[in-house]
């Protein structure tokens, strides 16, 4: 515990409550999720990069989404796994806590912006197929991705700065497995009401703001699909955006659950569960959602495996 007039220079992360056996079970579970996330998204990136049949805007965006998923989960999960394995409270400095929170929020913001971009890409593919290659040319795709990355990293500068301008004198015990902003605000002895309100408005802006092009795009997509006379044509058109739509529902659902709430200092269990959805479950599902139902990607992956086998035999 800290005195009333001193601010914490380091924090103790309490991680997960429970017995030693529970910690080992959680470690094995989360290590499996993390390993599959890294391997699955890496396979997506390599397959897209080496296969010329996947050199299209949809797969270009998917490759960047996979990079973001790897970075997001790697920001918090390895530190969490270390705490579960060592069975002790972890110490993190104020600077490291600031960097971790900034990277986590910035990468997440970039991902939301990219999801909106992918929705627009699917809209053009379904509603304007004849002009798709003209509208979604390589230059346009490049700048859309750059803007998504830059937006995320610029947008989160003030929220993180404002958070760490507070004085943390209530305690230096963070009841979480990473530097969660809600738990940090809980430790402040300053009046955080105004800061929480601004953070709430900014979370609404980025999440709802990226949802608007997604909702508009899918409104037009669904309308266009319903006008297709044949059932096979409707299935084919919907299959081009089914994976992205599934990811949108899961991704936005977990982010709304975690960030869009007026009171940032929610109960520790609430924040822990929501954070696990964002940092562990969603990145784990990305390879599953975008590959298992994608025949073109599966064919490209199988072709790559065959090429590797032939090279090894030679």
TrEMBL record:
Transmembrane spans: 24-50, 59-81, 101-120, 141-161, 197-221, 242-260, 272-292
Compartments where found: Cell membrane
Membrane topology: Multi-pass membrane protein
InterPro entries, sorted: GPCR_Rhodpsn, GPCR_Rhodpsn_7TM, Olfact_rcpt, Olfact_rcpt_6C-like
Predominant localisation class: membrane
Gene3D superfamilies per record: Rhodopsin 7-helix transmembrane proteins
Entry GO terms, CC: plasma membrane
Protein's UniProt keywords contain Transmembrane: yes
GO molecular function: G protein-coupled receptor activity; olfactory receptor activity
Domain (G-protein coupled receptors family 1 profile): residue spans on this chain: 40-290
Keyword Membrane annotated: yes
Record's keyword terms, sorted: Cell membrane, G-protein coupled receptor, Membrane, Olfaction, Receptor, Sensory transduction, Transducer, Transmembrane, Transmembrane helix
Function: Possible taste receptor.
Family named by the database record: Belongs to the G-protein coupled receptor 1 family.
Protein name according to UniProt: Olfactory receptor
